[in-house]
Amino acid sequence: MSNCVLENVDVFDPESRKRRSGVDILIQDGVIAAIGTIAAEAANGAVRLRLSGHTVLPGFIDLHVHVVASNTNLGANAAQPNFLAALRTLPILRGMLNRGFTTVRDAGGADFGMCQAVNTGVVAGPRILSSGKALSQTGGHGDFRQRSDQLDDACGCLGRQGAIARVVDGVDAMRLAVREEILKGAAQIKVMASGGVASPNDPITNTQYSEDELRAAVEEASAAGTYVMAHAYTARAIRRAIDAGVKCIEHGNLVDEETARLMVERDVSMVPTLATLDHLMEYGPKLGFPAASLAKIDAARSVGREALAMLANVGVRIGFGSDMLGELHQHQSDEFLARAKVVGNEAAICSATSVAAEIINEQGRRGTVAVGAVADLVIVEGDPLRDISLLLGQGEHIPVVLKGGTLVKRDGRLCESA
User: Fold this and answer.
1) What is the pLDDT of residues 165-188, one digit of tens each?
2) Residues forming beta bridges with residue 190, ordered by sequence position
């Protein structure tokens, strides 16, 4: 970790929604030490980067990723040999870092070893907040067995590096599963509370898990000082999850206004995932998605933007999630554009910075450009508040990224030590 000065930059701080022009930022020991005019003696031999015309933002936080999903067919992904599945995460993680994502919340699949590999510098990538294996009922969104399969091995997921979920049924089994995932390093727990678009046998309109099972997951997570995030598309599934104590809803395309107001009342966050459905519709036929899956995707996609506008109007806390799978990981940053078209550039950026930091209980430490905050920073050529396209693609307009005060991308390339 080296000290660094970013010279003559423009700054947007999403937490305060304030902008500053032509200032210096001093980074020492992994945190932002000063913002203003930094004298040479104060910098104490720090690396100085001259970045006139560039905008500094906090490092991006993606609240819904699956870093082990190197294949859009999640059943086939789980069937990969473990070593191969692990190796295939490496370009996914590097791509995220290259695009400016310094923290990601994995919504099923990443394990403690992968987090440690990133945190200790063995593997280049964003810091991972792992959910371990997501929890699914039999026949639920995380159960990728076909109807012709033998159903006596709990879908064989526990030892599979490429599996994003495990099958768990019953209150006692749920309690044990949550305890096991927390023992293995989960930062939060993920449950499948409704049908989904990528699984073979469950319509989106299905509710999944009994209220007692959901409540058991919440109780065990709360006892361990963390929370439950729930995959849920429909208003009915979202309300059941909220009543059980779930604190963050994933997707939510079919939410209604009454349920959105309940979310505000109960302080529950939403993480919509819009762009992935666009790309699944575009690429799904080439990737072998059956007609039934494409119909589910289209039904959720067609109402997603209206739901986002309504959620924003009601005042729900809305975080950034991409949920890309397999070949679609390269489109992660398209979520910025999908949101910006509905709520504007500033709100789209805040969803991946200050709002996301609040959802993971790290407000003030991440998601902000402020003295004392962790120096996770993205430096953009130009002004993304005016032109959101500067955040798209593979980081072509992001020449510099810092993660925990360390330069992990410089002059447009990931550093060897990243």
Assistant:
1) 999 999 999 999 999 999 999 999
2) 229
Could you give the CA distance from residue 109 to residue 264 in angstroms, rounded to a whole number? 30
Whether 47 and 68 map to the same domain: the answer is no
Same domain, 289 and 380: no
d(CA 264, CA 43) in angstroms, rounded, equals 44
Q: Which domain holds residue 29?
A: 4-58+368-414
What CATH number has the domain bearing residue 38? 2.30.40.10
Note the Cα 22 to chain centre separation in Å.
32
Over residues 254-270, the mean pLDDT reads 98
All residues at 6 or more sequence positions from 383 whose CB lies less than 8 Å from its CB, including other chains: 10, 55, 390
What is the chain's mean pLDDT, rounded?
A: 93
142-151, 198-207, 222-231: the lowest-pLDDT one:
142-151
How do residues 27-47 score in pLDDT, each as one tens digit? 999 999 999 987 766 777 789
More confident of the two residues 202 and 242: 242
Q: What percent of the chain has pLDDT over 90?
A: 78
